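Continuing the series of single-chain predictions for the mutant panel. This is the parent chain; the variants come on the following pages.
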Amino acid sequence: AYQARGGAKTSSFNTSNLIAHIRKNHPEVHEAFVQQSNAKQLGKDALKKTTQLSLKESTEKKMKYNKEHPRAKAISQKIMECIALDNQPFSIVQDAAGFSKLVEFLEPRFAMPNRKYFSDVCLPELYSVVHRHVEKLISDAVAISFTTDIWSSSVSQVSMLSLTAQWLDPDFAPIKAVLHSQECRGSHTAQAITCAFGKMFEMWKITKEKVHVVVRDNARNMAKATSEFGVPSLPCMAHTLQLAVSGGALSQRNIADALAVGRRVVGHFKHSPLACSRFEDIQKELSMPVKKLQQDAPTRWNSTYYMMQSLMEQKRALSAYAADYELPATLNATQWGILEKMTNLLEPFEQLTKDISSAEATAADVIPAVMSLTRLLAKTDESDKGVQTAKRTLLEAVCDRFNGVQSEPLYAIATMVDARYKDRYFDSDKKGEALNMLLSVVDEMAAGGNDHQEEAAAASADDPTQEDWNPAPKKARNKSLQDMYQEILAENDIIKQATAGETASQVHAYLGEVTILKKECPLKYWKSNQMRFPALARVARKYLTALPLYQCRQRTAVQCCLECHRREEE
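Parent structure:
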């Protein structure tokens, strides 16, 4: 063995001595070794010849792509999609040094075009693709629900009128898109808004027969505009809650005074960096999490709720601050008690606002939500001491604002075809009315009708049992909003009897089944059960498109189109 490696000394151990030993004593092994070495060398020589570029090729490889190069156009298209999807300004391609360096690192040969190229070339191309795709989706939709609102820009004195659309595909997957947004110049009269609606719908080739409902705010000009345009409409539930809370509880003298003091305290820290830093030091000394006080806005009642909540959380820190430093105003013990009880009282309203603001919320959530909320407000408890008047005022305001909600076909039928609710949340004298509405619409759509909301509404108006909805208060222990959902459901979970007729049998068989859990998705239910209840599934695909509130800035048509393309690729 030592001889094969070159002797007994380790310094002689090398491959040359080993090869010499193999050549002398093992010629057949050496021959195979030589052939293998020659094959490797030939491969290296061939690779060197193929990878070596000519001078011209080497020069061209370092040159930038021109704008019309396929690779450059593809990158520009993706950058335009990034700007559209993430709502980025066009200036990102010129002013964002980090973004430009990232693109250069990924593709050194790409020359970043200026913002004018993206706004004048790339954007119209992308919009054209998106417009055609969304237009095709809209043409295939059975019914479409819309939301609209006039809102003001935060960076300029401009009012914008927006229009969003939501519909369901054959698999009950919701599709949402912001179709239009335009400047609303001059007075926001009903006539001007009606004219704008006409142009928007004409642009997207949407007929009035395909419009299920338009959700708008409670302003008279919007209500009149939708009426004059000739499409059904519903008020935004979140805006209605805003009016109920602001005009009910928050306007009372003792509550308004406590809130005024709270606003002065919060404003002191908002306008004084020194006071804010001192307040943070006190929070750290008290081992409290460092949090800033929340300022409320007059147009958002829940911002007032968050302000009261933040004041209550920082009560200890505020007391310690007032002992060492001066505040423009301080809350007394009575006012602290009012804020605490009002925070508890408004908690169900905040939970309800979050529920109806979720992406999965529909108009079917309105009746169960209102029924549960009024039942909760009707219950009395010892903890209500000091805010009984506010609680009673809130109950009256909610009942007044949502009066007749169970008799509105757009709400009632949507609730009936939502497998979480069905007819369980209607008053006993309203269940028959809601069932008649559902049967009427099911028969009409099964026969090939388009939209028969007027007929359902007329049947509702002729019902002699119809009256104002005003539940009487009942004495019980204080519970949460979710408890009220379960309580009402338990009282009305009754097995139904099927009647004659194919569509009627489907309706009664559906109503006779147990409701699904509230956390489950009704659209997934109908995707799985549309073969069992085909007549009801058609109604559900139409009525479950309506949203409970307007959402005019949730998604752009570009985002909708790109997501649809991604689904198709998957």
